[in-house]
Design goal:
The protein starts with 19 loop residues before the first helix and ends with a strand. It folds into three domains: 61 residues, no CATH class; 36 residues, no CATH class; 144 residues, no CATH class. Helix 1 packs across helix 2 and helix 1 crosses helix 3. Strand 7 and strand 8 form a beta hairpin. The relative contact order is 0.13. Helices cover 34% and strands 22% of the residues. It is of the alpha+beta class. The structure holds zinc ion (ZN). The site of zinc ion has 8 residues, from loops.
């Protein structure tokens, strides 16, 4: 979402329809850039309201809530359809996207499906609300290495990277939908190693990159295809992304790495 903070022409100042989302994002930018306290943000909002600027939030809490709602709306979901013949993925449910597949014109058997959730938006949401310090650039032999059970790879990344980064462990869990049937779904979960252990596994700090809706268990080729869909986004996140981290009240450029898949 891109915001236009400053209209190009002076006469637009009186007519430009600032939305509550735009004003809240502007106030949050001011807070970060100038290290304003929450009460300062509230004061600016009330000052703008006194000058009859419409859609102004009257408190920092409302600014924060408005942005969080916008972010929730942006937790976009994509559905991928997986051909049961060649395991190629398609964005539409009618036919296989592979031109070499005999189901390219029309699926002969119903394709499997996989719901993918945007990982980057979830990281943004978690770090924006994280109350504990993010343990980036940990020292060697820190407690995180033992917990991730993949200490060698963690140390290897640590030795290669000069930039700050966070790391993930990916797991796939089966959730039974009923005691009386074998209907299940499989939920993909990722935890962030650099979050303190005491809150790392809380639901609000867990990333859900995707769901296999079942009812049957994915076959090995289907599981590999779904993992590749998730990994495609994770590869993009290996480049540094600016995240607002609440506990340090600052924007941090962080790279991301998947270090373990269980
Ligand atoms: Zn196919």
């Amino acid at each position: 979402m891109k915001y236009c903070l400053y209209p190009k022409h002076e006469d637009q100042y009186n007519s430009f329809p600032f939305t509550k989302s735009v004003l809240s994002a502007s106030l949050m930018l001011l807070k970060v850039r100038h290290r304003l306290t929450r009460s300062r943000v509230t004061d600016i909002g009330r000052l703008m309201s006194n000058y009859r600027v419409s859609n102004t939030s009257l408190s920092y809490q409302v600014v924060k809530y408005t942005i969080e709602q916008d972010m929730t709306n942006e937790l976009d979901t994509e559905t991928y359809y997986i051909c049961t013949s060649c395991y190629h993925t398609s964005k539409h449910s009618e036919s296989c996207a592979s031109e070499t597949c005999h189901e390219n014109d029309l699926f002969e058997k119903p394709p499997s499906s996989f719901s993918k959730f945007c990982v980057r938006h979830q990281i943004e949401h978690i770090l924006r609300n994280l109350n504990v310090q993010l343990n980036i650039r940990p020292q060697k032999n820190s407690y995180m290495i033992d917990i991730s059970d993949d200490g060698d790879l963690y140390q290897h990344i640590l030795s290669l990277e000069n930039d700050d980064f966070i790391t993930f462990v990916l797991n796939v869990d089966r959730i039974s939908l009923s005691d009386s049937s074998d209907q299940s779904l499989w939920i993909f979960l990722m935890i962030i190693n650099e979050i303190s252990e005491n809150v790392r596994f809380q639901l609000r700090n867990i990333i859900i990159p995707g769901i296999w809706p079942g009812p049957r268990k994915p076959t090995n080729p289907e599981l590999q295809t779904t993992l590749s869909i998730v990994v495609d986004e994770l590869v993009d996140l290996e480049e540094a992304v600016d995240y607002y981290v609440k506990s340090s009240d600052s924007l941090l450029p962080l790279k991301s790495s998947l270090i373990c898949s269980l």
